[in-house]
Each structure stands twice: as C-alpha cells, then as structure tokens.
Design goal:
alpha+beta; Arc Repressor Mutant, subunit A; two-stranded antiparallel sheet; two-stranded antiparallel ribbon; 9 helices; disordered C terminus
Length: 238
C-alpha cells in the first residue's frame, strides 16, 4: 500500500471513530504491516494535510482524533444555542485540587478548601469519568485516594498531566477550567455542596470536536465531552 492510500485509510478510520484511537489500534488497520514509527509519520503528514482546514488532527492521552479548530466555535455554537448547565465554583476548586495534588483523599481536599466536601460531588466526577479511586491511604479508616483519569486528559485535549499549566503561587487555580466556571445556581448557601448537572453528549455536524476558550469539545460521534473546557481555555491563562 502506498502512502496516499495509507493516509486515506487512517483519515477515514479517525473521522469515523467515536473516541481517540491509539497508534497500536491504527496499526491493526494494516494487519500490522506498517510499523509504529511509520504510522506515526503518516499521522503527522495527515495532520499537516489538514493544517488549513476548519478541522484538525490532534494527539491526546488516549490516541489521535479529529476536532474542530477554536475559531470555528462561534459558528458551531449557532447549531446548539442552548448552553448546558455549568459546574459551580466549589466543584471547580475540588476538581483543580484533585488534578494538581493527586492522589488526594477527601480529607486532603477539605483541609485545602476549608469546607466539607459533599460526597455526591466526587461521585459526579467519577460518573463523568474524570476521577477514579486508585487506592487507599494506609491510615485510620483507609480513605480512598482520588486521581484524574485518561478521560479527563482527553476532554482537556492533553496528552499527559505534565501539560497542565503551572500552579500560581503553588495553589491549584479553578479558573484553568473556565468553561465549567459558570454556576447554574448560587451555591453560597450550600457552601461546598452542589454542582450543576453534568452535561450530556453533544455531536458536531462535520465529524469534529471543538476545543475552544470557553466552548465545549464537539466530536465526530457521541463522545461525552461537553462539560469541560478545552486546551485553548486551559493553556493561555498561564
């Protein structure tokens, strides 16, 4: 198979894939006739081929995917004028602490924030696939150790935690997750307690996922990534 045909196969597979695809899985398209380095090289060429289009090929933690460019968000939003509810400030602070201080226990989060953490808030993050229990601390009560997931990185458009911006004054900044920082309700009375309901899946028209400063990712298939702001909103704030 020549280079043109191989790139065409990769392009088709990635556009049709509902989730990011790893290089190992992409090699299966060719019955492993192409090596890892060859597939990576073709992906980089394919990325360059799409450089002037409204959709781009990017690498995230789980693999490669197509997504819309940030400047396309203003147009794509016209297809979905109703915005999903946002997470509260309390939820953002909790998520930021887990992301930057992981692994952490619920008690660690409470010590940092100075308020009680609602267990339902943690469960919402777990249900969304952003947070998981990776073990237990060997102390009284053996509290669960919380950490972020690969899905969390995918939804931010990142390949690894190393790409998270540096903390300001050593404190996790919830503003890094700006798209979630639009509380659907005032949680002042409830203190730490609630978050807005998690947003549901959102599908774009042209097999694309939007990653934008203030917008939610949009994917080729039904990939539930609407609640979390993308790389463009995360990185420029540093």
């Amino acid at each position: 198979m020549n280079t043109v045909d191989a790139k065409r196969v990769l392009e088709t597979a990635l556009i049709c894939a509902p989730l990011p695809v790893s290089v190992r899985d992409l090699r299966a398209l060719f019955d492993d006739a192409l090596g890892t380095d060859t597939v990576k090289g073709l992906l980089l060429e394919l990325r360059d081929d799409w450089a002037l289009r409204g959709v781009e090929l990017v690498q995230v933690a789980s693999g490669w995917r197509f997504q819309s460019r940030p400047e396309m968000r203003v147009y794509l939003d016209r297809l979905h004028p109703e915005k999903p509810p946002r997470y509260t400030r309390a939820a953002l602070e909790t998520l930021a602490i887990i992301a930057y201080k992981q692994p952490v226990t619920r008690g660690d989060i409470e010590d940092i924030r100075g308020v009680t953490v609602n267990s339902l808030l943690i469960k919402q993050f777990e249900d969304r696939g952003w947070v998981e229990v990776i073990g237990h601390r060997e102390t009284v009560g053996r509290p669960a150790l919380l950490a972020t997931t690969r899905q969390f990185l995918d939804d931010l458009g990142l390949q690894s935690l190393d790409q998270l911006p540096a903390m300001q004054a050593g404190v996790p900044q919830p503003d890094l997750f700006k798209a979630l920082d639009e509380p659907a309700s005032n949680d002042a009375a409830a203190g730490e307690e609630g978050t807005a309901p998690a947003a549901g899946p959102e599908t774009a028209v042209v097999t694309a996922e939007e990653l934008d400063g203030g917008g939610a990712p949009q994917t080729a298939a039904v990939q539930d990534t609407t609640g979390l702001d993308g790389q463009a909103s995360l990185l420029p704030q540093v």
